[in-house]
Write a structure and sequence with these properties.
By secondary structure, the protein is an alpha/beta fold. The protein is built from 15 helices and 19 strands.
């Protein structure tokens, strides 16, 4: 029997943008069911924690939040604690040992059961009415079958173009990002099988969302005021391969560009591109489509052939370098972001030096570095158990610091150069001034939440979400300083005739 006394729900979303979209979908479902959604500092009947389990640090953070919620339940401040997401999918058997007191758990393929989990509705009519409830399908095929979707002759990985595809509904989301920008999920899962990655074991193999669904969501978002659509998936460049969509990412970008044009223009940003299948046709699409911003987020992970091979990246260092050069040559003004892993099992000082030299040559606009952590069930995790391959933590930290200091120098110099040129950009206003007199915004080459900002000093009062033409007048570390072009006086010099 469901508990009719559960009226209000607080929600904690942890982890990456893909997880955030899951949270938005569950929140939209709860809102449609009539639940009152409250902030964490308000009294709630139930709390939902959408967890991340990608790395050990993320697991620890998720468990800390879960333990806090259970303590609040014991203190009478909550009635139910529901845990969802990657940590549930990855550690379903152990989670109740780590955190006894959870009332319900929902895996990554089962978020449409969130209403039942919150209300306390039973999975079945068993006599064990006081135990926790579970909705954790083993994979997408199992989840699809349980919903009456025919899976005959379909493959999970879709190598034959007949993959099951993305069947979940992201349309009824309650947007957690600011109104003017949002994430648009185009796929789920990944077929790349990198040695360090747990995604295939958590999210499953690649499942592309049908183009019609993507276009419909994009239309709805832009109609509601979204100006910037950030396309996300574990491997966006492989979109369509698993469901036999011959147009692939080029067709998708073209379709979303048309959606943006129909709404008077907007920004379409490509995130999480994989290097080994980034084609010339994709490059041309980014270069030519007017609403697709000249920006690519492409995690490269390393620049040593030995490390790339051990990581199972299916690409050589010289191929990566040639791709970066080709991208910059054919997409003028390209903003390029990447990430690297340091301290991977077996990484030597020589490997690290190759990576430093690569970063110095490539001069990336933005870069992130992750210290390797051994993840259970991965090939790399097994490698790391070999003491001859394990990289000590202090070495990982030192290498991370060296890489980030190099990138800081590059980024600071790039920002100063842009300021010296008094470059002019459209700036999307994100936030009003806080302790400074600057409005916070972003140029096209600055993605939300992960990149630097453009700080706008203005005598007017712009609206959040407004696009303002600005001149760059300075830099402050990573950030650019700007003023609206409209606030510069126009001086006209006329010839004097006798």
């Amino acid at each position: 029997m469901a508990d009719d006394s559960i009226k209000s729900v607080s929600f904690v979303s942890l982890g990456c943008p893909k997880n955030l979209v899951d949270s938005e979908a569950m929140l939209g479902d709860l809102a449609s069911a009539g639940y009152r959604l409250v902030s964490d500092d308000e009294q709630a009947d139930a709390m939902v924690i959408n967890t991340c389990g990608f790395l050990e640090a993320a697991k620890d953070e998720s468990l800390e939040v879960i333990h806090e919620a259970i303590a609040r339940k014991k203190a009478g401040e909550l009635r139910r604690v529901i845990v969802a997401g990657c940590l549930v999918q990855r550690h379903r058997a152990q989670l109740l040992k780590w955190a006894p007191g959870i009332d319900a758990m929902i895996g990554v393929f089962d978020r449409d059961h969130i209403r039942s989990a919150v209300s306390g509705e039973r999975v079945d009519d068993t006599e064990f009415d006081d135990g926790p409830q579970y909705w954790i399908a083993a994979n997408a095929i199992v989840a699809a079958k349980s919903r009456g979707i025919s899976t005959a002759d379909l493959t999970v990985q879709g190598a034959d173009g007949r993959g099951i595809g993305y069947f979940e509904d992201d349309a009824n989301r309650l947007q957690l990002t600011p109104r003017h920008w949002s994430y648009l999920r185009i796929s789920e899962g990944c077929n790349q099988n990198c040695a360090f990655c747990t995604i295939p074991s958590i999210r499953g193999k690649m499942r592309s969302k049908p183009l019609s669904k993507i276009v419909s969501e994009a239309n709805a978002m832009m109609a509601s005021g979204v100006f910037e659509l950030n396309l996300i998936g574990q491997d966006t460049t492989s979109w369509g391969h698993d469901i036999g969509d011959a147009s692939g990412l080029v067709g998708l970008l073209t379709a979303i560009n048309e959606v943006a044009a129909a709404h008077g223009g907007g920004w379409v940003r490509l995130m999480y591109a994989y290097p080994n299948n980034f084609t010339d046709e994709m490059i041309d699409a980014v270069a030519s489509l007017p609403n697709v911003v000249k920006y690519i987020d492409m995690p490269l992970q390393h620049a040593s052939d030995r490390m790339l091979g051990t990581m199972r990246r299916n690409v050589r260092a010289d191929e990566q370098e040639a791709l970066v050069e080709r991208l910059r040559d054919r997409i003028p003004g390209l903003g390029l972001r990447t990430t690297f892993i340091t301290g991977f099992p077996g990484e030597t000082d020589e490997d690290h030096q190759l990576l430093l030299e690569f970063v110095d040559r490539m001069q990336f606009d933005a870069m992130g570095v992750f210290r390797y952590s051994a993840e259970e069930g991965t090939v790399a995790g097994t490698l790391d158990s070999d003491p001859t391959l394990h990289v000590p933590e202090e070495v990982k930290v030192a290498r991370e610091d060296e890489l980030m200091l190099l990138q800081q120098e590059i980024a600071f110099e790039n920002a100063a150069y842009v300021a010296e040129q008094e470059s002019v950009f459209d700036v999307l206003i994100d936030n009003p001034p806080d302790e400074t007199s600057y409005w916070s915004g972003r140029c096209y080459h600055q993605a939300p939440e992960v990149d630097a900002r453009t700080l706008v000093h203005t005598e007017t009062l712009p609206a959040v979400g407004e696009l303002i033409r600005c001149r760059i007048i300075g830099s402050e570390g990573y950030d650019l300083l700007a003023r609206p072009e409209s606030e510069y006086e126009t001086v006209v010099s006329l010839p004097i005739s006798d």
